[in-house]
Write the structure tokens for this entry.
Amino acid sequence: MKKILILSIILLSFLGFTSCNQEEIETYKSTDNIYFSPSVFPIAIAGAKVLTDSVGLSFGLENPSIIEKTYKIPIRVQGKLSDTDRKVKVSVDPSSTAIAGTHFKLPDNIVMHAGQEVDTIEVKIFRTPDMKNKTMLLVLNLEQNEAFTTKMKDKVLNVLTQKMMSFISFKLSFDDKLTVPPGWFSGFLGDFTAKKFFLMCDLMHLEPAMFNNKLGSTGLSISDIQYYQNFMKRYLNDQKEQGNIIYEEDGSEMFFP
């Protein structure tokens, strides 16, 4: 009888433990939140993985023939997936300086596609003359609709600076300013100018954006830079001997050390 009592207690304890565990593993029953993924899942920027709610782009090192580009902003669902497409409501914040139709264009319909936890908002950015000396800012806000809520709140990243990270607002800045790129070695290539830079890239079929990388990167070793220097020196000398002196925009003769 005593053994039966002990076994009964053990059995009841086991059932109670199982019941507690089942209660703790309840499925997600809250609303489906939509948020910008880079604020939670790091993205690659300048060779590093970072959490961010803003990204900067530039046409500065793009060939003049490139007049637009598309940037895809990842969005993510906190909640259940759906077997149908769900509309995502996005608004342009009043703080934006970029003008719709002039500097950028959003898709007519933005959706989280069926079965997807992660999707993207494709922002088409146009290269305009005013971007040569002005940086445009586009701030996008995710809004609540019949499919999604936006309950994820901002968080403090740095207690000292009080810098905030937003889950439902994303800043995209862009310009066409050409500055000296990190991969330009003036000791071999001389002073940086736009005309010299793009001429060199065109003649040797180099990708201008490559020079956004640091010296020593692929295509930017010392031997690579020396080759570019010698190639351009020969080209300029050959042109000069044929009576075709290559000038900079300011009228000075183009020069490589």
